[in-house]
Amino acid sequence: MATSDSRNETALTLSKDNKRGLFYFLRRDWQLYFLLLIPLAMALVFKYAPMFGLTLAFKDYKIAKGFWGSEWVGFEVFLDIFAKPDFIKAIRNTLMLNILDLTFSFTMPIVLALLINEIKSVMFKRVNQTLLYLPHFLSWVIIGAIAYQLLSEGSGMINNLIEQLGGDRIPFLQEDTNWLISYLLIGVWQSMGWGTIIYLAAMSGINPELYEAAIVDGAGRWRKMWNVTLPGIRMTIVTLLILSLGHVMGGSFERIIALQNKATTEFTTTIPVLVYRWGIESGNFSRATALGLFQAIIGLILVLIADRIAKKLGEDGLI
């Protein structure tokens, strides 16, 4: 009876709230709405207001004529960039690098989090976590400099060691295939520690009674990991995967620039690099804007498709 009364009171309260207008809630919670104005203003100024500049993608923009004086050309700029040989190469390289990066850089934090979660020593676990996520705070300029100090074919520390052991020097960053492998491994090293923190935080929310029940059923560490831990963080994995798919057509401009050189040009032409070359180096802002808009639209479509698939598989999704 008490439960029924409480439900009726809750329903009555909700009914009254629905009848009250917006101004009632603004007056009641004005402090919260006032605090909300700051992030809302930042989003409007720095995220939405610059979108007006996307109209450059539909204009033959000339600096001398200005934004308003430049001729409106519709989709001619898009047709122009689609016909460029560099565009096809940039699409190929962007998809290849990001899919490979997603395969390794996305799965490695999950594996690493599962292993760290099995460590019983709290001190050892904390030291490992600290050492693993420190690279996340280094800029790609610093990481690139470290990479060339270690992996350079002429004077790299690792090649010096290989030569002293009787081996031949390896062009880790001076040959296209080796550069690709080094690019992926450096990316995994830089990102895996930070991703591990997210999964370990998700694992901390798993009910310990589930592990106790698994032990009673005779499950070992591997079975507990597979049947309890992984299902417990499945929603976190799906959410991060959906967000990662939005960057498949993007990639890290800083990472490419920090690791590229004149000897390796096969895989370094990606969409962000091409936007920089067309926009900043060549001054063709219409072409760069059109390419950036194309990249953003494809990324949005991939996120929506991934979200729809996640919902079909029984997950909550993002939208």
Short structural summary:
The protein has 319 residues and is mainly α. It is 71% helix and 1% strand.
Structure commentary:
The protein has 319 residues and is mainly α. The protein is 71% helix and 1% strand. The protein has helices spanning 2-19, 22-28, 30-48, 66-69, 76-82, 85-117, 122-133, 140-151, 157-164, 176-203, 208-216, 221-232, 234-245, 253-259, 271-281, 285-312; strands at 59-60, 71-72. The protein has a two-stranded antiparallel ribbon. The two termini are 38 Å apart.
Label the overall shape.
Answer: globular
In percent terms, what proportion of residues is strand?
under 5%
Query: In which order are the strands of the major sheet placed?
Result: 1-2
Low-confidence stretches: none
The biggest beta sheet is recorded as: 2 strands, antiparallel
Number of strands: 2
Tell me the span between the first and last alpha carbons: 38 Å
Overall pLDDT, averaged? 84
Helix segment count?
16
Fraction in helix: over 70%
Order of helices and strands: HHHEHEHHHHHHHHHHHH
Radius of gyration: 26 Å
| Content-based structural category | mainly alpha
Give me some keywords for this one.
single chain; 319 residues; mainly alpha; two-stranded antiparallel sheet; 71% helix
Strand and helix layout:
Blueprint: H1 2-19, H2 22-28, H3 30-48, E1 59-60, H4 66-69, E2 71-72, H5 76-82, H6 85-117, H7 122-133, H8 140-151, H9 157-164, H10 176-203, H11 208-216, H12 221-232, H13 234-245, H14 253-259, H15 271-281, H16 285-312
Antiparallel strand pairs: 1-2
